[in-house]
Amino acid sequence: MSTATYPVRVDGALDERLNRWLWLVKWVLVIPHLLVLMVLWIAFAVLSFVAFFAILFTGRYPRWIFDFNVGVLRWWWRVQFYAYGALGTDKYPPFTLHDVPDYPAHLEVRYPEHLSRGLVLVKWWLLAIPHYIVVGFFVGTGTWFASRADDRAWGWSGGLVGLLVLVAAIVLLFTGRYPRPVFDLVLGMNRWALRVAAYAGLMVDQYPPFRLDMGGDDPGTTKLHEPPPVGGPYAGPPPVRPPTENLQRRMSAGRIIALVLGVLVTLASVVGLAVGGALAWLDEGRRDTAGYITSDQVTLSTTGYALTSENLTIDTAGRTLPHRWFGDARVRVTSADGTPVFVGLAHVADVTSYLSGVGYTTVVAVGPNRTTYQNHAGQAPSTSPATLTIWRVKASGAGEQTITWPVENGDWMLVVMAADGSRNVNVRADVGATAPVLEWVWIAVLTSAGVTLLLGIALVAAAVVRQPKPGPSALQAPSSPPVE
Predict the structure, then answer these.
(1) H-only helix segments in 13-90
(2) Can you give the pLDDT at residue 370?
(3) Domain span at residue 275?
(4) pTM higher than 0.85
(5) Where are the beta strands (DSSP E) in 227-325?
(6) What is the pLDDT of residues 83-126, one digit of tens each?
(7) Any domain includes 73
(8) 93: exposed, middle or buried (Cβ count in 10 Å: 0-12, 13-18, 19+)
(9) d(Cα 16, Cα 172) in Å, to the nearest integer?
(10) Per-residue pLDDT for 149 more than 50?
(11) Residues 343 and 429 placed together within one structural domain of the fold
């Protein structure tokens, strides 16, 4: 359809005079906005999911969700216009979802009375793919990145918009002027991206035009708050727009406190969700058929006579660890060269006494690509390990050897040797634990994080959604005095 009636309008007015240096620190100045927007985007995604089903079953986008989601896009556009999406103004963005007439960046989306139930199934993931490719070229990820292989290499992933804004910033730094043609092109690409965002956000059915409408004022739409010519489908008197001075979005102290608390609570909940998800993955994804959460198998070797762990200290102030909470630990060892192998667990003092003067190796750290060892010089042990009585648990022989024991207090050390005490130990090993309490931990963490996430979003919404109350003069002219 013609872009002249496209229901998404994006405007931006370039400041006549911009500070040459301020753009160098705007990345710090926008941090409060980015924290709030992180919360708002989470709410945007959740509410868009709700709107999807509302459109699917009723053909209508719930108005309050629509206004909220348009407000999120509007807030994001103001921040981008101020910061590195355009650098078009030095006026700090307001903390509000509503349109601010005297701010130089605006976004409006006409509310649709009806939306296609069929299109909602495909437009956001299938039909929008060509636009996603174009927008990806325009916008990119908006960040610098560095990658290192054989040597250090730097790259740019900010897209064409980021590159043009960087050029404009350098010109501004040296000349004090923002090149107008660059600004018009940047606005056109941002406009394209925001039209696609509204389409993918299910707010419009009209397919975004493949057209780069450049310039500060959107030439691709009519002004959405003004009616079309007489006789059009939206004919009627234009709504009264309150004077600018009566629409200052000033936040009270209570709303500022709610906003700060909401962001902090949401950040904490996101961390909690990440921790709970990781614990759930451990419990459900790494538990084997025997009930043990098991590590990947690693290869360990030494030219000495023994491999040992570092000190494994478990201290609960003398209290016995409940077995129903912590369960059992397990170590499995297999010789890599077929030699019979020994594995045992004993108190640190007993192992230190046995290996005094013996050449052995301590496994300091095991990583995905490298294992760190600490070597101790010495001679062969005086006796084979299996003959000693120091072991809490032990296993010896050909093939895989397994030891299990209940997790308990003490200073412990694991020892792996050849069964006959000879040198050159080379094994594959893994460790595991039943940890019955883990299931309850991740359920509790995810539940509490989910509750705090809702609380954080509610606090942010309470701070930013409420419409400020304009004064009487904003809605009506003062009445004339009665005629005598």
Answers:
(1) 26-29, 31-58, 63-82
(2) 85
(3) 253-291+440-467
(4) no
(5) 293-294, 298-302, 307-308, 312-314
(6) 999 999 999 999 999 999 999 999 999 999 999 999 999 999 99
(7) yes
(8) buried
(9) 12
(10) no
(11) yes
